[in-house]
Amino acid sequence: MKVPFRLNSMVVAFGLAGSMLAGAAQAQNIKIGVVIPATGPLTQYGDMVKEGVDTALEQINAAGGVNGNKLEAVIVDDACEPKQGPVAANRVVNAKIHYVVGPVCSGAAIAAAPIYNNEGVVVVTPSATSPALTEGKNFTSIFRTIGRDDQQGPFAAKFISQNVKPKKVAVLHDKQSYGQGIATAVRDTLKADGVNVALFEGINAGDSDYSAVITKLKSAGVDFVYYGGYHPEMGLLLRQSAEQGLKVRIMGPEGVGNPEINAIAGPAVEGMLVTLPADFASNPKNAAIVKAFKDKKRDPSGSFQMGSYTAVQVIADSIKAVGNDGAKVAKHLHTATFDTPLGKLAWDAKGDLKSYDFQVFSWHKDGSKSAATK
């Protein structure tokens, strides 16, 4: 009698273990890589993305997760460096992570995209705006929840020509994929609109003294400057221009829209023009999401928070619809329309949004911003 009893006990034990393993497998977290600059001079952009991701994950998981599974964020640092982009991508692949929010910066995203696409990792970037990320690549798994530079650049140029109406413009850039790309789009649109672009020149990112280019701006007699790049250089351009008596208004893309610019530029930041995603936090339809941000002392009105939240949402919605399979999720993103905090979103065959709403804001020395009319 003892032998059958022991056998039956073993059967029961294996049955229980099997049930427990099955339950564990069923409840396994779905990992989302959050590829951001966790180190380097652009970490605040990473913080913006993380705030959006964290808020979305908390809300989705509190509501039961995705098909019974919880979502889990895995932070991967690429420092916004093109050379680190592929390194970060390989970390994601080796960790068997099938979904990514990020990369944040265009240069790193462009360098990493072939790896993600070849390995079937679904990437939704809330901030990489360079057309080179998707144009002519035939990628199937690269998406973004922000408009491209060739949407943002012409939008900025039209505002300059129609609202500011300068006589002579200088267009500067940081010689990098993002900055030079958007500056080129601004220059070309201004020229097409008959605006005199007297200077188109690159500066070195990371320099501390831009006196030479400011002297060129003064000699050229420009009355307006557009700069394509990020906030550290823009802050110095603003401050040093004021110190050297160059009294012109300066405009930049969303890459300069960082609260840290106030500490760099000081009072000279007042009146800086910047193109940013529309203020989705002010939309009454997003009141509950805005509250979720504010309850955790996060900023829902920053440049990339709502786009990051949306990136998580569309990944989660797609997994709910077609299952936890990267190829199926990518196909679903290409074909479906999503109701998101950014409005109704749909992607074209390249993974770019079919439409996107940019606005022009005037930046103030107290860190606030207001809609700009001229």
From TrEMBL:
Signal peptide positions (record): 1-24
Gene Ontology BP term (one): amino acid transport
Record's keyword terms, sorted: Amino-acid transport, Signal, Transport
Domain Leucine-binding protein as annotated: residue spans: 30-367
A matching Pfam family: Peripla_BP_6
Similarity section: Belongs to the leucine-binding protein family.
Protein name as it appears in the record: Branched-chain amino acid ABC transporter substrate-binding protein
Source organism per UniProt: Comamonas piscis
